[in-house]
Amino acid sequence: MTNKQKLELTWIGKEKRPRLEPRIFLEDSELSFQGEKKEGLFNDNLLIHGDNLLALKALEQDYVGKIKCIFIDPPYNTGSAFSHYDDGLEHSMWLSLIRDRLLILQSLLSIEGSIWITIDDAEGHYLKVLCDEIFGRSNFIGQVTWQKTTSIHNNAILFSSNTDMVLAYAKNIDFFSMGRIPRSERNTQDYKNQDDDPRGPWASSPLHVSLTSGQRGKQYALTGKSTGLYPIVGPNGQEVYPPKGRCWAYSPETIKDFERQNLIWWGKDGNNQPRLKRFIKDNKEGVVPSTLWLSEDVGHNQEAKAENNTLLPDLDKLFSTPKPERLLERVIRLSTNPGDIVLDSFAGSGTTGAVAHKMGRRWIMVELGDHCETHIVPRLKKVIDGEDQGGISKLVNWQGGGGFRYLRLAPSLLQKDEWGNWVINKEYNAGMLSAAMCKHMGFTYAPSETQFWNHGYSTETDFIYVTTGSLAYDQLKRISEDVGEERTLLICCKAFMSEGADFPNLTIKKIPQSILNKCEWDNDDYSFTLNVLAEDDVELYDDEEEA
């Protein structure tokens, strides 16, 4: 395989891509909730009820490049049916469904952002290759092993599964910055003061690095030389070189500066390999996270079920494998700062939003099930009112505050009438129609209070007007004169009569004809269920082998 060739995962139906309708959102004010306003807390958090693929498409226009952290816990496709997700999808269909979502999620991430995906080994290794393709192998942050349970299941046929994996990718690894986790008592014990340094306890790390990796390795392979291969004179006068296959990580000048600052440790007898001293007082922000997350540090499924049961008596029964708040706290701590936006498009029991809220982050969650209203809303209200003192509340000294908006996806803009013709959905009023057409045409919906023809803008001088009426020549002439020579206007209307006149500052399109071919209409279900398979595809998937 040449350097230009790209390794890709293939599966049945990969070439099929849904043509999603960019829906508008409708707020349900009875379910939106405003708590006490506090500095640093946000009221523009979004809880969205609806198909998550359509919801992600609806978020695109306003949130591309703005999400700092995405955490998703998608259906694992293990072959066991969950209460709210049909988790036994055929392998190829599962890959298509997760691919479609990841492509939009990738576009929503900010340049400094990252995505964290929990999965098990039923699909985890396929997902890794798929994520390499979508996010780029160079943007792979790492794979965390999370201890999800401490119990041994003796009814397991082979292994008793105690862990899940968490795949983490950056939007652009060059701009991603990993946070730190708090120093534990075990970490603190690693710091000692073997030479009674007045600066206090310290730990040490090697002064050498790999000679054959990275740009340094490429240079060595080409020339057989390295700027890091030189002797350092130890306290006993001996010349010391780095171990075989290694080179010094610093220049001779930097090494001498370390020596002047008493930052090099040669061991008690002065004959060891030199190591760089790092003082605990200079490393207050915490420690670098490892790829093994034990339940004692970030919780496990049973802890999460107990948290849910404390909040709402039957919430623990709805989800057999919920994620603990401490797990989400670690992900959010490592990947965001206060004020950043966290997105979870598989909200489940609402843990991501609850934890992000307590940590002073903005959040967006999407959930299709009815429990979005019956369980997530009450949970978040308890968080906002300060009643939820479980989970990470005491860790972050949570006292309540903030709020959220409850949004639903609008129905499809177009539906077929009794004769099979596509027409504007009767549920749409004038405001909804204007907002939807703005989204379809790439405009920001911002109706003017003074200019009847100004429903939105794409630039400072380009505007849009939407009407279901038919516009006559006199009306178009008056609008053109009002718009003026310095501005342009896109008019979307049912019909128009220009009588052969040309209005240079107006572009006129008929609806619905102008948008008929833009997307799939009147499709409300792209969910992780078997009924998304088209009837003519069923026999193919029954007969073919897995991808």
Tell me what you see in this structure.
The protein has about 550 residues and is of the alpha/beta class. The chain has three domains: about 25-180 and about 285-410, Vaccinia Virus protein VP39 (Rossmann fold), CATH 3.40.50; about 185-280, no CATH class; about 415-515, no CATH class. The strands form seven sheets. Strands 1, 2, 3, 4, 5, 6, 7, 15, 16, 17 and 18 form an eleven-stranded mixed beta sheet that branches. Helix 2 (about 90-110) links the parallel strand 4 and strand 5 (about 110-120). Helix 1 packs parallel to helix 2 and helix 11 packs parallel to helix 12 (about 370-385). The chain is globular, with a radius of gyration of 29 Å. About 35% of the residues are buried. The model is unreliable at about 530-545 (pLDDT under 50). Its EC number is 2.1.1.72. This is site-specific DNA-methyltransferase (adenine-specific). Belongs to the N(4)/N(6)-methyltransferase family.
The N- to C-terminal Cα distance equals: 21 Å
Strand content: 15-25%
CATH third-tier fold name of the largest domain: Rossmann fold
CATH class identity of the largest domain: Alpha Beta
| Low-confidence segments | 530-547
The total strand number stands at: 27
The best one-word shape is globular
Taken together, the total number of domains comes to 3
Helix fraction, binned, reads: 25-40%
User: What structural category arises from helix and sheet content?
Assistant: alpha/beta
